């Protein structure tokens, strides 16, 4: 583990949720949602198309993954949205064809 205890990924650092009744859930379309205590959406992983539901898994290496229940296909994962902490096996990549980058983002 990381010592001292360190936050390694944050969905909404500009608008942190302090409500103790907030929760992380998966919508009917398979999207990962962070809801405030009044069930308002604070953050969403984006639209997905999970045909028969989805599930969230936290891997042994620290990657939060949303998978389609039927196909097992990865719909969303936290390693594709890096923050300012690099975990072992989290990729830093650059796709020449698409221009897509996975980079660390410094918190000011």
Automatic annotation (TrEMBL):
Keywords: Disulfide bond, Glycoprotein, Kinase, Lectin, Receptor, Signal, Transferase. It comes from the Eukaryota. Residues 1-79 form the Bulb-type lectin domain. PROSITE patterns: BULB_LECTIN. SMART domains: B_lectin (SM00108). The keyword Transmembrane does not apply. GO terms for molecular function: carbohydrate binding; kinase activity. PANTHER family: BULB-TYPE LECTIN DOMAIN-CONTAINING PROTEIN, OS01G0783900 PROTEIN. This is G-type lectin S-receptor-like serine/threonine-protein kinase. It comes from Noccaea caerulescens.
């Amino acid at each position: 583990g990381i010592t001292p205890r360190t936050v390694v990924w944050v969905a909404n650092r500009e608008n942190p949720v302090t409500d103790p009744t907030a929760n992380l859930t998966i919508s009917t379309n398979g999207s990962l949602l962070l809801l405030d205590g009044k069930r308002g959406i604070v953050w969403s992983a984006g639209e997905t198309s999970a045909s028969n539901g989805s599930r969230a898994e936290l891997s042994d290496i620290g990657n939060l993954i949303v998978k389609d229940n039927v196909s097992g296909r990865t719909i969303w994962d936290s390693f594709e949205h890096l923050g300012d902490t690099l975990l072992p096996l989290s990729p830093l990549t650059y796709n020449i064809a698409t221009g897509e980058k996975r980079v660390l983002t410094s918190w000011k």
